[in-house]
Specification:
Ribosomal Protein S5, domain 2, Butyryl-CoA Dehydrogenase, subunit A, domain 3, 3 domains, nuclease, YicC family protein, YicC-like_N
Length: 296
C-alpha cells in the first residue's frame, strides 16, 4: 500500500443529454477528513452520494468540492431580462445621480440585481434527472480517483525525503555511539579530574560520599537508553513507510518522540561533539516533522 500526501488538485467532467457537469477537487492538510461541498441549487440531493464516493478514495485531508453545471444542446436556456424592471431601476439610478450625486449605475450592476436577469428552470422528468445524476457522479468518481493518484505520487516523493532524513538521523546516532567521550576510560578520567578539584577545595569532604555522588551523576548522564530508543523509533518509521497507507499520525507521533530524545541527548551531553550531533539531530527532526504534516 502506497503513502498518500494530503495535497492535490483535479478536475473531471461528464456530459448528459442537456448538461455538462464539471467537478473541481482541491485537497490540503487536515487533521481528519473534512469535505466542504459547493453544489448548485437543486443538486443538494447528490450530497450523500458525493460524501460516500470521496470517502472511498480519501481517508484524511481538507477537501473542497465544487460542482458547476453548464446547460448544453437543444435544451440549453437563455437568460431572460425583465426589461420593465430594468428600465425602472435605470431611471431611479439616474434620479439619484442627479439629485444626490450618487455614482452612476453600471449595466452589469443593474443586471446583477435580483429579478432583473433570470434563468428559466428546466423541467426534467424523473428518468432524465436520474440519468443526469449518474453522469455527474460518474464524473466525480473519475475526479476522486485522479485526486487519489495525484496524492499518491506526491506521497511517494515525500516518503523519499523522509527516508533520506531517517538515514541522516541514523548517521548522527552512530556518530554519538562512537564518540570518544563515551569510552569508559574517558568517563573515568573526567570524573577523576572533577573529584580531584573538589577534594582539593576542602579536607572535610568525604571521598566515599563523593565517589557515590559521582557514580550517581555518571548514571544520570548516560545516554545509552536515548540512543537505543532513537534506533527503535528510526526502525519503526522505516517500517511504516514500507507498509504505506494512512501513516501520517503514526509518523507524527514518532516525530515527537525523536524530538524528545534529541532534547534529552543534548541535556545529558558530556562533550562538545555529542552536543553538536544532538543539535544537528534536532534540526533534522524538525524537517522530518514538517514533511510528515503532508501525509495522510
Amino acid at each position: 500500500m502506497s503513502v498518500q500526501s494530503m495535497t492535490g488538485f483535479t478536475r473531471a467532467s461528464g456530459e448528459a443529454q442537456s448538461s455538462r457537469f464539471t467537478w473541481e477537487l482541491r485537497s490540503v492538510n487536515g487533521k481528519g477528513l473534512d469535505l466542504r461541498l459547493r453544489l448548485p441549487p437543486g443538486l443538494e440531493r447528490l450530497e450523500p452520494a458525493v460524501r460516500q464516493i470521496l470517502g472511498r478514495h480519501i481517508a484524511r485531508g481538507s477537501v473542497q468540492v465544487t460542482l458547476s453545471v453548464t446547460r448544453t444542446g437543444a435544451n440549453s436556456v437563455q437568460p431572460i431580462v425583465n426589461e420593465a424592471l430594468l428600465r425602472e431601476l435605470a431611471e431611479l439610478a439616474q434620479r439619484l445621480h442627479q439629485q444626490f450625486g450618487v455614482a452612476p449605475a453600471s449595466a452589469d450592476g443593474l443586471l446583477g440585481l435580483r429579478g432583473v436577469l433570470e434563468t428559466p428552470e428546466i423541467v426534467e422528468t424523473e428518468e432524465e434527472r436520474g440519468a443526469a445524476d449518474k453522469v455527474a457522479l460518474d464524473a466525480l468518481e473519475d475526479a476522486a480517483a485522479a485526486l487519489a493518484t495525484s496524492r499518491k505520487e506526491e506521497g511517494w516523493a515525500v516518503s523519499l525525503v523522509l527516508s533520506r532524513l531517517l538515514d541522516t538521523m541514523e548517521g548522527l546516532v552512530q556518530r554519538v555511539e562512537v564518540d570518544p567521550s563515551r569510552e569508559p576510560a574517558a568517563i573515568r578520567e573526567r570524573l577523576s579530574s572533577q573529584l580531584n578539584v573538589l577534594l582539593e577545595g576542602g579536607a572535610a569532604l568525604d571521598p566515599d560520599r563523593l565517589l557515590a555522588e559521582a557514580a550517581l551523576l555518571a548514571t544520570k548522564a548516560d545516554i545509552r537508553e536515548e540512543l537505543d530508543r532513537l534506533a527503535i523509533h528510526i526502525a519503526a518509521a522505516r517500517r511504516h513507510l514500507q507498509e504505506g497507507g494512512a501513516i501520517g499520525r503514526r509518523l507524527d507521533f514518532l516525530g515527537q518522540e525523536f524530538n524528545r530524545e534529541a532534547n534529552t541527548l543534548c541535556s545529558k551531553s558530556g562533550s562538545a561533539a555529542v552536543s553538536a550531533a544532538g543539535l544537528e539531530l534536532k534540526a533534522v527532526v524538525d524537517q522530518f516533522r514538517e514533511q510528515v504534516q503532508n501525509l495522510e
